[in-house]
Amino acid sequence: MNVVKVNGASIPVLGMGTWTLRGETCSQLVSRALEVGYRHVDTAAAYENEKAVGEGIRASGVGREELFVTTKVWWTDIAAGDLERSAEASLKRLGTGYLDLLLIHWPNPNVKLSESIQALNRVKEGGLTRHIGVSNFPTTLLAEAVDLSEAPLVANQVEYHPFLNQNRVHEACRRAGMAMVSYCPLARGGDLFSQPAIAGPATAYGKTPAQIVLRWHVQQENVVAIPRTSNPDRLAENADIFDFSLTDGEMAAISALQNRMSRICDYDFSPVWDTA
């Protein structure tokens, strides 16, 4: 699996997202993903599936040192003390010995960012995680977090797909030497796959529209994609994107779809987003 190297971390460019997956179904999908070549698994305390993810990892038989495991602390738990306890509980549920990446899942306007970042650094210093980062941070908050952190932040996980322009966040991540990790990278289908900019290359390369979109993600500088699927057959399909490349023109045509600015994950606790 190809990796991006950012601020001392080597992150596989394609990971398995596990949002909404639960119980034995989750465990079986994680195990299957690792069997077909994935080495990056993404979960979160809020997903309530960390135990199942850990069981899937162990069932796969893949050595821990080969894996990159990410989890996240929910936005209501990022105060000093709470964050550390959440990280410890996540690691206990996962049973992986250590985390590769711990993220603040969402910012919390009621908790000083300096307090949260200091707590995140303490978790790293304590050896629970190899790397730290954030999620759903717009550029202003990201810059503040980078300045506050003693250890380098290696990733900002954000919603990103061809219907949502994240150029400002992407550029901020690149300037900070960080990866931008794309969740909902396929925009949950909709009419995305029927767009000529995607359907055309799919036909030309003998690939599915989903493979074209995932290739668009990983072909960008320091971008990682973590698609989620509940279909075991799709796991191998999604991973089969490293035997072709999109042309500059094809990349630009897909990127032009971002003018739609369609956001899937927007909640009452969301920060003020960047606009294109």
Walk me through what this model shows.
The structure is a single chain. The protein is an alpha/beta fold. The protein has a domain at 3-186 and 221-228: NADP-dependent oxidoreductase domain (TIM Barrel, Alpha-Beta Barrel). The chain is 38% helix and 17% strand. The protein has ten helices and ten strands. The chain has helices at residues 23-35, 50-60, 82-94, 113-125, 139-148, 167-175, 196-205, 209-218, 232-239, 248-255, and strands spanning 3-6, 9-12, 16-17, 40-42, 68-73, 99-104, 129-135, 153-159, 179-183, 223-225. It has an eight-stranded parallel sheet. It has a two-stranded antiparallel sheet with strand order 1-2. Helix 7 (196-205) packs across helix 8 (209-218). The radius of gyration is 18 Å and the shape is globular. 47% of the residues are buried.
